Amino acid sequence: MDVENRDHIDQLMRAFYAKVIPDAVIGHYFTQVIQMDLEKHLPMIVDFWETVLFGVAKYKSNAVAIHQHLHEKSAFEDKHFTQWVKLFQLTVDELFEGEKAELAKQRALSIATVMKFKLLHQQQGYFGQK
Ligand code: HEM
User: Fold this and answer.
1) CA–centroid distance, residue 45 to ligand 1 (Å)
2) pLDDT band (50, 70, 90) for residue 124
3) Average pLDDT across the chain, whole number
4) Considering its fold, how many domains does the chain have in total?
5) pLDDT, tens digit, 9 for 90 and up, residues 68-77
6) What sections of the chain are H helices per DSSP?
7) 112 lines ligand 1 (CB under 6 A)
8) Is residue 1 part of a domain?
9) pTM of the full predicted structure?
10) What is the CATH number of the domain that holds 61?
11) Is residue 56 in contact with ligand 1, taking CB distance under 6 Å?
């Protein structure tokens, strides 16, 4: 079955966080760096993926700025992004297959790559702003 609607994204994200939260490499960001309330967080993350996969104009926040804030609390390294992408792709493959499932995996990797570049490698002033 492919990812077709908001309910499917909700299902995907619940399965993803079930892997992320106990994860030895990145779980502490959700439990110690911040204490994430999953039920409050899920609607935002589902909005984000509805926007990314279906072009629905729902997610209006700045995800890079939110991760910049996390990065200042506890510095991200390459391994955190690698693990995040790995768990995301694993979760998609366990539950879905098809065009949108492939798109989700591609977008997860490309957004993670851009986010990593901005947070880890982009020096102040590089493109005119931090
Ligand atoms: C190093 C890997 C990552 C870690 C450890 C991580 C961790 C987190 C944490 C702890 C939050 C909650 C922040 C808060 O509520 O204050 C969050 C929010 C979020 N993350 Fe990540 N993240 C990572 C990578 C990514 C990537 C690659 C994406 C997108 C493809 C992403 C998308 C989001 C979104 C959409 C939110 C919600 C932002 C909002 O509240 O508007 N994350 N992340």
Assistant:
1) 8
2) low
3) 93
4) 1
5) 999 999 999 9
6) 6-20, 27-28, 38-54, 63-73, 78-95, 99-116
7) yes
8) no
9) 0.93
10) 1.10.490.10
11) no
